[in-house]
Amino acid sequence: MERAAVARILVVGGAISTFLGGCSAGSQGEAQPSSSATSTAEESVLPTGFDGCALPQFVIDAEELKNPEKDDGWTAGRNKWLGCGWIQPRGYGATITVSTISVEQVRTNTEHVVGEELEISGRAAITSYPSAQAGKWCTTNVEMKNGSMEIAINVQPKPERSVGRHPCDISKDLASMLAPTIQSGS
Fold first, then answer.
1. Minimal CA–CA distance to 174: which of 104, 97, 115?
2. What distance in Å separates the CA atoms of residue 151 and residue 141, rounded to the nearest whole number?
């Protein structure tokens, strides 16, 4: 029991350290397995090769994204994520992260409705949303080693920019622009 308590302290301490460190390119903020951790390496290592806080300028300009704010999390279970939330001022919020959640996990999640399974830049991808949020929320997960790139879209009640665009279409559009920027082998 004492060893598990030490592992939780290390994970929480790492989360706080990562949060205070801010978004940056490189290895800062990437979870690394601890010798005292009780989870497997696959469950504790975030995908690498993509930074949701450092989007290409053409994507920022095309979608008019603003105000990146770090978004990282260690849930009660084993899933982790790291990236940034972005605002499209007249239409939607976008959370763009790498996550330990795999495309297969999304497919088998009974709490979400699978919208579409597709391929983006040669990678398996899937859209999903909570049934109570249909038309307001959608997530696209693009397969990566150890998880996925995850793009979650929350449409504002009276969006101007997203009129006629379903949140799944917005998340797929962003995924199509961003997936080619994922480093190969990731």
1. 97
2. 6
List C-alpha distances in Å: 110 to 78, 99, 100, 177.
18, 19, 18, 29
Domain count, the chain: 1
Per-residue pLDDT at 10 exceeds 50: no
Residue 169 lies in a domain: yes
Is residue 120 included in any domain, yes or no? yes
In sequence order, the 6+-apart residues with CB closer than 8 A to the CB of 157 are: none
Which domain range does residue 113 map to? Answer: 46-181
- Is residue 10 in a domain? no
Q: What is the pLDDT of residues 115-139, one digit of tens each?
A: 999 999 999 999 999 988 888 999 9
pTM over the 0.90 mark: no
27 occurs within a structural domain? no
Q: What is the pLDDT of residues 137-159, one digit of tens each?
A: 999 999 999 999 999 999 987 76
